[in-house]
Amino acid sequence: MTTAELNIDQNKLQDFMGKMVGDLGAGISSALVVTGQKLGLYDKLSKHGPLTAHQLAEITDTSPRYILEWASNQAASGYIQYDPEQNSFFLTPEQTIVFADEESPFFMGGGFYSIASIFADEPKITDAFKTGQGVSWGDHDSCLFCGVAKFFKPTYKANLLQSWIPSLDGVQEKLERGAKVADVGCGYGHSTMIMAEAFPNSQFYGFDFHAPSIEKAKSLAEEKGLTNVTFETSKAKEFPGEGYDLIAFFDCLHDMGDPVGASQYVYSKLAEDGTWMVTEPFAHDTLEENLNPVGRVYFGFSTTVCTPSSLSQEVGAALGAQAGEKKLREVITSGGFTRFRRAAETPFNLVLEARR
Q1: Average of pLDDT values for 47-74?
Q2: Closest Cα partner for 312 from 185, 122, 137?
Q3: 3-class state of residue 138 by DSSP
Q4: Most buried residue, 35, 67, 174, 184, by most Cβ within 10 Å?
Q5: What total of structural domains would you count in the chain?
């Protein structure tokens, strides 16, 4: 069918093609962000810039010719700046906290690592579309694990102690006095260790079914010298211990094959006046409300990581990363919880509180 036969609106077509060029540029530039992270290019630019391509190559022990092409792409992307008079590249303060400072609450480097893993895993995901079967978390490219940890850590550092825990009824006071806490689906354990450092009178237990992530968490905790945190490989319906004052699920409930079963298990493991904190990706309750830039990112990861992970497990509920509060309420209250509320939120997170 010809363009004329399709009754194409040329203005709309040109606008759409402009969007496509932008998306193609974002896609290829994403891979180069990972290169910049691995080689320390943003870090050196932030500390020593402005730098010519040759100077940046010299202090990073890389090839000047490659660095010139990389820096040109990054400048065209608006990720770094170019000074034509000095033929040099540099980072603005805003670009620095997004690309060069891993301790910044605005650091986005981890998201690009995660995207890199998705490209590596594309054949597995495409095949899953045909079979309907899942792809286990542990079967993904290893970039995903470090990428997810890097992506979520800034959010936890910016919000967990400042607003999320204070939003829970009586929890901060318990933690200050001394409480027993389980962090389920903890990954590399950043959320667990943030809490453990802040509340030395409490004891923290981090659990995850991915053994390599738990080994990494143990190593990080040892480096920090933390004595009130323990990490152990365990599934969400099997973690040991009981009488927990707080059980936390950070961005993981929707990945589970049997979230209702996990809810029931949490109910059985809490102290009588204990609290379940569930942090999930921010989402509204209808599809049309989630067709926005944040939803675009989350639906992308949901398609390639979250839904396949759930489908690879028992039941395979496949909540997806945009489940929304209404669906999450159904899952959580099905476990026996009678008190449920949205305790806090950010543009990227819902923080839910459940009690008996």
Answers
A1: 97
A2: 137
A3: helix
A4: 184
A5: 2
